[in-house]
Here is the input.
Amino acid sequence: MKNQKILITGSEGLIGTLLQENLRSESHTIYRCDKKFSYPFDLLTDNFSDYFKDFEVDTVIHLAGYAGPKISREEMNENTEITARVAYTARKNNVKRIIFSSSIHVYDFSNMYERKEKINPETPVKVHSNPDYYKDDAERKVSNYSKSKITSEVILRCYHHDMHILNLRLGAVNRDNQPAKNPWGNATFLKHQDLCRIVTKGLSFEGCDNLVCVSENNEDFIDRTKLEEFLQ
Here is the structure.
């Protein structure tokens, strides 16, 4: 695979910093876009086209947005608006592909785990519920984060005739690189090194697809067959 010019939105978060280091080690050129960057950039208000004026971007890795199951409706709407702006501007500037950090939150995974239901490539998306977080808040008993990821995937698929679109439904990427201490933590965990390997492989992806991304584990909750085939 030839060296690429890669733009990472949300570059200064955990996933962004992990990918920067790994992709630079493979001699790719990395451009960073984040509110927390030394040259802060707001994808909702600043002119995203400015990033494409002086260089040709091959791939956009889109990570930017509010994260976590407790985001508000306003933050959910901002997430989807950011994705729409990224997709529109990338197409306008002849970007070849977008790799999107979606999430296993596009499934009602914690409740599925408790019911011993499995996730496979044919499993339909369903908004994740948050009853334990918001027992008395009807609006947030379903996850706004989950809604934002599902909607963003739909937005990106609308551009698949013009760009290659890869939606990575990421498991839990934790700062300490260890599974979370909850019942489904091991089954939904994604190691740093596996994340980097998946994204690197995605740089040569062509087409439009979704991929559930978790590390190998001793549980039979998420079918990794499609992921393993992708990585071959």
Q: What stands out?
A: Strands lie at 5-9, 29-33, 59-62, 97-103, 164-170, 208-213.
